[in-house]
Amino acid sequence: KSRPHWLHSLDNYPTMQRSNDDWFIIFTPQNLGELQSIHIWHDNYGTNPDWYCQEIIVTEVRNNKLWVFEVEQWFSIRESTRNIEHTIYTSNSLNNWTKKTRKNVEMGIRENHLWASVFIRHPRSPITRCQRLSVMLCTILCLMLSSMMFYEKVHTNE
User: Fold this and answer.
1) Domains of the chain, earliest start first
2) What is the pLDDT of residue 81?
3) Domain PLAT: where (predicted)?
């Protein structure tokens, strides 16, 4: 069992926002050992303190170890769980084919689907929403132009 680590942003950057990935670095003097579980909570502070955590990935750089904690829980006193703290145990999701496939499809839609990526793009994506919207508009205009080019008026003999 280790001591609690308080994760926050030093430069008042908003963390735990919708559709964001938050990365925190913790320096420890010794190896982490074998992680079996993590206990996470929050202080329920702010105008909308509820947040959903999908997963937590812990990487120990020193020994090149990786632990995946699939949280998939709401931290809220208003939701049905009414809990702002959870204990999560490690999972073997690295070998779970269905979860890998689901994440791959989800990321593909977020990054590569022309229409959906405007609204649900990944926060670290180098392509902005404005650029995606410009590509969408160009596609629509090209389709309209090609439709006008090949449109013919049908002549009927009367």
Assistant:
1) 1-97 (2.60.60.20), 108-151 (no CATH)
2) 58
3) 1-89
